[in-house]
Amino acid sequence: MLLLKHLFTIAFAFHFFLCSAQKQAATTLYYHEPHRSQIHFTPKEHWMNDPNGMVHYNGVYHLFYQHHPGSTVFGPIHWGHATTRDLIHWQHQPIALYPDSLGWIFSGSAVVDYKNTSGFGRQGKVPLVAIFTHHSVKGEQEGRSDYQNQSLAYSLDEGKTWTKYKGNPVLKNPGIKDFRDPKVSWNEVADKWIMTLATLDHITFYSSPNLKDWTKESAFGKETGAHGGVWECPDLFSLNYQGKKIWVLIVNINPGGPNGGSGTQYFVGDFDGHQFTPFDKETRWLDYGPDEYAGVTFSNTGNRKLFLGWMSNWQYAQVVPTQKWRGAMTVPRELSLKKLNGKYLLASTPVAAVNNLFGRSLQFQNMLVTDLDLTAKTGKLTGPAIIKMAGDTMKDFSITLSNSLDEQLVIGFDKSRNEFFIDRTRSGNVGFEKDFGKRHMAPRFSTSQNFDCTLIIDKASVELFTGDGLTVMTAIFFPGEDYSNIRMQSKEELKLKSLDVSFQKQPKQY
Ligand code: FRU
Q: Which residues belong to the signal peptide in this entry (predicted)?
């Protein structure tokens, strides 16, 4: 009997070991798929587009996202869910919101309703409230124009489970086809919630005391900014500039972005609790690369403004050559304001925590670069890397990532045009869409003599932060074999005060 018991215990332990080993393998195996981002958030499988409902609560950052769990292309959209405590290591969570009789769950935001204005709170539990667009496919197919409406869901267990509000929709469509992507925040001056909503070719602001009853306040943008496409996924927030409260209005637009297809524009001005008034009529872009879209900020992060976008472009998002999943997010970025020639500009930097992803680091000082095989010094690239450079004169330069198939991605600065560029003409598989294999450009805004540049390189993406964070470019690429070489060239002899190359920490921690 005792022997039997021992055998049983051993068998059980073995089974447990196997199961957890399998589980472990299942959760990490997908990181070996071709082109799979190693340090950026990706869904385990299937389709992902916009980040949604980003909110910070009790030390946890929540990322919801547009997700079609049945396929690698766009379809019945749910809100997928992931969480992180440090903004760099993500845990997948169960799907938060499923389509229902009112439609698919399109983009939106989430707030912490501390004062329980919604009345969803029970027994002192603070409700997290999601405000999203219900997209009725039926209504669309019937040729109606009111198929997008705003609805609510709430969670009383810190985002784990969600209940849709019985009174949905809370904001009905007045007959505008594109009527979506509510971004809600508490406004102290109005003493109300303010909803910033994308309404075709402009923004409409609504206010509410309780998240359920909404009143139209004002409209902005019909005659301002870029209008090469539909306005989507807006965001309104304030940033402090030398003690002054300055308002920023982000408006994503598709198509009509600065390098074709989708892009993120923004306006700087004042918001008096009712109306947004821009300081000027200029169109500014938060990211000039082809692959940052639908980016908005987290709510409830105090004075910090943390931004994250979808690393793709509607021009080709559904045909990029990944197999089991489609879509990745940018690294979280911290936003601040800078003033240049009397104008406010948004500056972006990767959140400091991104540095914790990298371990082995090589540092060089006072280098003169004409033609430098960097990997001869650092060793071949075997995964993600971060490159930081600083100098005191701006000169032409290029950084080429390449592989043994003679595929290459070139990132650089063209002094004669005062432009940065990312050239993916020969970056690998570019044939899935006619406009993918291109050279993309971005102006340099910084007026400083100095030169700074941070490059975050992952398997299938690069993010460039330069010119005091005022020029940002994000681009994705699909080489036939991972890039392993880094070469730096400058026909003018670039003088670098410092050059740091750091490689992803091993073993990977997922
Ligand atoms: C932006 C967008 C939103 C919409 C969502 C649908 O990429 O088109 O306007 O809510 O995607 O997934």
A: 1-25
Neighbouring C-beta atoms of residue 70, cutoff 10 Å:
11
Residue with the nearest Cα to atom 8 of ligand 1? 232
Pocket test for ligand 1, best of 52, 73, 106, 197 (most atoms within 8 A of CB): 106
Q: How far is the CA of 354 from the centre of ligand 1 (A)?
A: 27
Domain 48-350 part of CATH 2.115.10.20: yes
Residues having CB closer than 6 A to ligand 1 are: 49-50, 66, 77, 106-107, 133, 180-181, 232-233, 294
CB 260 within 8 A of CB 315: yes
How many angstroms is it from 332 CA to the middle of ligand 1? 20
Protein residue with its CA nearest to atom 6 in ligand 1? 106
The domain limits of the chain are 48-350, 359-502
Alpha-carbon distances, residue 439 vs 289, 315, 436, 474, 483 (angstroms): 10, 16, 9, 12, 18
Residue from 105, 149, 178, 233 to probe ligand 1 pocket by mutation (most atoms less than 8 Å from CB): 233
The H-assigned helical ranges of 90-213 are 137-141
Active site residues: 50
Query: Smallest Cα–Cα separation from 338: which of 470, 473, 250?
Result: 470
Residues in the chain: 510
pTM for the predicted model, two decimal places: 0.94
CATH 2.60.120.560 fits 359-502, yes or no: yes
Q: Which residue has the tokens 């509607």?
A: 314
Nearest CA to ligand 1 atom 9: 232
Which atom of ligand 1 is found nearest the CA of 233?
Answer: 9
How remote is the CA of residue 107 from the centroid of ligand 1, in Å?
A: 6
Place of tokens 């304030």: 238
Cα–Cα distances in Å, from 4 out to 9, 13, 306?
9, 14, 58
Q: 179 C-alpha to center of ligand 1: Å?
A: 11
